[in-house]
Amino acid sequence: MSHAQHDPRKHTPGQGQPGSEEGQVPLQRGPGHEDVAPERRTGETEPTDREPVAGDAPGPVHIGHGDHEPGQRRPALAAMVVLGAACVVGLALLSMNMFGAVRAYAAPALLAFALCALTYAVGFWIFRRIRPVRPPRVTVAVLATVWGILAATGVAAFANTAMGGLWGQVLGYETAGAWSAALTAPLNEELLKLAGVVVLAVAFPHAVRGPIDGFVFGALVGLGFEVTENFLYALNSISLSGALAPATSVTDSTVVRVVLTGLGSHWAMTAVSGTAVGLLAAVSWRPGTRRALAALGLVLLAMLGHFFFDSPLLGEGLLGVAVKVAFVFLSAMAVYFTVRHTFRSRVKRSLAEQGKQLGMRRSDAKALASRHGRRKALAHVARPERPDVRRRQERMVEEAEDRAARYAVD
Question: Model-level pTM?
């Protein structure tokens, strides 16, 4: 069911339901949470001889009935099948592409793998943290990177080779040598990475509910793509250097791609296009003209950044590379801070509304929109009560994020 629609089973603070009293906390069945019994049952009252604490249970709040509403289960299952099949195909293509080099340079390949694993670990931590309020679920985040590591990279490596030959016939091999990457990658690679975000949004609709989710999962897909591509480039650098110093070649290749160009690499490009997926997912894939054009513009911006990055424009000197990296990175940051500000504002608005029902100070309720604010609120609660208060905070935040998605389409 679209977040823009209102399920008759759901209710908002201040509105009673038949058979229940206002102020009752409903059973929580949000994704990634265990069921939590209501703190107060019908007919029971809560002591009122203390001031409400930030993080206390809200009034009646909506908690999702799981990841999939009726009508979403079959598309989600189909998306999971596509994800699995694409990853298997990508793994097969990558294995054929890398097997010879890995067998010939086993020790340097192990070094390249270790450096890529370190890049993955750091990037995975960062990109989950940049989602405001709460990080995405680990399982869905891992699947996003797996699409980038296997499906997108494996298919793109095959498609790039085929399209590179086509450009050689159309443009001539001299011109194609300079422009082939810029003409090929924005089409093959960006669309394949974007497809991963779409698949995740269909398979896990509760995980991708708006633009900020699209940005984060796009960054994770791009991270996976970057890690595999770094590994392929590292192996290729061994051959290009004549295998005279394999370890040095691997290290130099990784440093250049992570330190020098990492800020403007695949994560940033796919984060921008992934935001478009979040825009469409927020309205159950039925956008109006304005939203559809905004989504198209984001995808084209990602493609433009990739084209500029791979083009021979500005040369291959340090200044030219720096300008290209800056263009891609700043484009991503402009998109990120825009959608981040909008999302946080809507979450705080919802928390303030819930807090009003509890008699909480507005500032205390809005503070729950940050991890630091929730920890600070817990610090003022007696230790034995903290588990219960933490669960109540989670219910408030879950409701706030759900409302934030509805605000986006109301």
Answer: 0.82
For 209-259, the DSSP string reads -SHHHHHHHHHHHHHHHHHHHHHHHHHHHHHHTTTSSHHHHHHHHHHIIII
Burial class of 35 by CB neighbour count within 10 A (0 to 12, 13 to 18, 19+): exposed
Max Cα-Cα span within the chain: 83
CA R_g for the chain: 24
- Can you give the pLDDT at residue 43? 37
Both tokens of 63, joined, read: 């908690």
Three-state SS at 42: coil
Inter-residue contact 57 to 26 (CB < 8 Å): no
Is 22 inside any structural domain? no
CA atoms in the 13 A half-sphere facing the CB of 235 = 22
Contacts of 87 (CB under 8 A, 6+ apart): 146, 147, 150, 151
- How many domains, in total, are found in the chain? 2
Tokens representing residue 379 in the block:
């610090």
Does residue 165 sit in the same domain as residue 260? yes
Distance CA(176)–CA(162), nearest Å, equals 13
Instruction: In whole angstroms, give the CA distance from residue 31 to residue 64.
Output: 7
Measured distance CA(153)–CA(269) in Å, rounded: 15
Whole domain around residue 396: which residue ranges?
Answer: 350-407
pLDDT(187) > 70: yes
